[in-house]
Give the backbone structure.
Amino acid sequence: MHKSKIFIPILLSLVLVNSDAYSSVKALGMGDVQVAYPQEPTNAAVNPAILSDLGNCWEISALALNRDGTTTLKHNSIPGMNGKSNAFTFHTVPGGEGGFCIKLPYKLTAGVIAYGRDAAYKVKQNKIFPALGTSKLGLEIIGAAIGPFVSWQITPCMSIGIGMPYSLHRYRLKGAQNIRPFSVEPNHVSNRHYQYYWTIGPTFGWLYHLTPQLTLGASYRYPSKFSKVHKFDGAIAGHGKLHLPSIYRVGFAYNFCRFNLAADFAYQDWRHIRGAHNSQFSTAKPGSNKGFAYGINHIWTLAFGADWAYSEDLTLRTGYIYINGPTRRSQTGINSTFMAIVRNIVTVGATWKLNHCSELSIAWEHGFSQKMRGKTLSYPPGFGGGRCDLRERRDILGLSFFRYF
């Protein structure tokens, strides 16, 4: 196996980690549930049909994502590879979201939404990996999306919607000089200028008030086919195609007295994304269609949330999220920078009503520290083999201002 084959996990780590992480601050405080519970315009990024229930309003928010994680490699035969490495030299990444919606004739509601948490990471290892290069490895992927969303209230109880966001990402890799001789595109691997790549892809949504207390919702995000990352297509499986998968979501919300309960289920299908689905033990050259990747099949998420109107001015929230996947114990070596292993997340939040039109919200999401012990042979044999263990912890803090007009 070529030395270059440790390289793929680092390439895709940032795109995959947060591909389904966007939500409003109110939703963030109650487990990111938002498929069937309209609260703010940015909920439409998940379910566009929600806009019909919001009316004329706008919001703006600021967020900070903090991650901490380590990689521990044992029993590797290559000098300098064994030991522990901090995967996140840059711990905190700031971000922001916002949007507005307005009622139109013929029972239509339209809005524009901007969000950036679907790709916002900087990773820099604090250790040199001799199999990769002679300097510390660094990777940056910063992304944002903005676009129009429209919903139509078909009946007093049912709405449908569609969104067409434009997503722009920026990519750069450094510190992988030793990979070039083995790549299908030796000059398109590492230490080049930033590469910008984009996509436009629809999201469809449905919302139905089954009873005055019970609301059902569903949405579907069409697979996002980004433009090629040409400057780094010698390393990314599929010749530089960093696509994102389809996402299916269903949810419900139930109101009684001063409480609201909600739950969402989301499923991401990665089986057709070569840069994520291919196994780390593939012997094909990096950058080719059969080049190895993370071995991801699918990811599913189950979220629960609740809020309580403590008074006319104060609402309290809490929630829980469970994530199944994407990292498998047999693939920890190739996921040593991906580091998406957090499984259990709790959230809390609150909203203070400033007046009859304005609200201020705060939320905190904590992903408990998770350890994953790799299998005996969880690091590619061509790089000395051995066992790769991972650990990750993450937190998100958000603050938003919301106003009706």
Summary: The helical segments are 8-17, 25-29, 274-277.
